[in-house]
Amino acid sequence: MPVASPRERFRESIQGSDGKIDLAEAALWIAAEDSQPIDVADYMLRLDSIAAEVEPGVRLACSDRARVEVLNRSLFVDQHFSGNRDDYYDPRNSWLNDVLDRKLGIPISLAIVYIAVAQRLGLDVCGISFPGHFLLKHVGAAETVVDPFVGRILDREDCRELLAAVGASDAEFRPALQLRAATNREILVRLLSNLKYIWLRRSDFERALACCDRILLLAPDAPEFLRDRGLVHEHLECHGAAIADFERCLRLAPSDDLAPAVRARVAALRTGDRRLH
Question: Which residues are CB-contacts of 95 (< 8 A; sequence separation ≥ 6)?
């Protein structure tokens, strides 16, 4: 019987309800396709070991905030996890096996490590798709927001300042919106979108296409992701596939703001006019 490919294992890992998805396992299968063959089970055991080291301190903590502080100290001080400020767009920052090996990552990948460890400790921690900078929150008697890139707790004023720092200075800080819990599928889409951006920056369209394909496994009816894959197909001169993506995008969102540009792309491809690049 043939061994399942990383793509097939990723597809299996995201089946069923959102709450049943194991973020760490799915992220490891993303890494296994993108980088090199890895022993996913071994890295899952490594997360078990990290959680086992933290567990005594968490068990003795007397409040939700104290438990978060113990977890922060363990991961970001004792275990030396940190954000990679020197080479933010290194793809290894998004591959969970490398994040666990190197103790370096970006907010989304460090958040996946944090969530995986927290879940093993029975802590209710979820991701937050904050604009421009992924965050975490512990849901307890009072929400505790954590920046996984620097490993510290944020208060509401910190969040306002972060919103301004990521280029949203005109946006009003609305906790119910900007601190909303992200679903597991949304987190994986954001991880893959980061990787897609990296490959596009490097003009590696084959790898960008692989990211698009997996994003659409997670969100098959999202017009913006169909448009993005169509653009990558077009760069690869797979014009039939590009038209199919663009036309499905238009069927799903015929009145969307992106529709006129997509119609223009379809027309250009059908007439052989490439000047719209």
Answer: 30, 31, 34, 35, 109
Q: How many whole angstroms separate alpha carbon 188 and alpha carbon 26?
A: 8
Q: Is 146 left (phi over 0), alpha (psi -120 to 50) or beta?
A: beta
Q: List Cα–Cα distances, 168 to 127, 161, 173, in angstroms.
A: 20, 10, 9
- Asked if 108 and 96 touch (Cβ cutoff 8 Å), the reply is no
Q: List, for residues 198-213, the tens digit of each pLDDT value.
A: 999 999 999 999 999 9
The answer to whether the CB of 101 falls within 8 A of the CB of 110 is: no
pLDDT in tens, 15-66: 999 999 999 999 999 999 987 789 999 999 999 999 999 999 999 999 999 9
| The domain defined by 6-178 carries CATH number 3.10.620 | yes
Provide CATH 3.10.620 ranges for the chain.
6-178
Do residues 116 and 110 lie in contact, with contact meaning Cβ atoms separated by under 8 Å? no
The CATH classification of domain 184-271, taken from the options 1.25.40.10, 3.40.50.300, 1.10.472.80, 3.30.530.20: 1.25.40.10
Spatial separation of the C-alpha atoms in residues 209 and 12, rounded to whole Å: 20
Query: Which residue carries 């093993």 as its tokens?
Result: 120
Residues 94 and 108: beta-carbon distance below 8 Å: yes
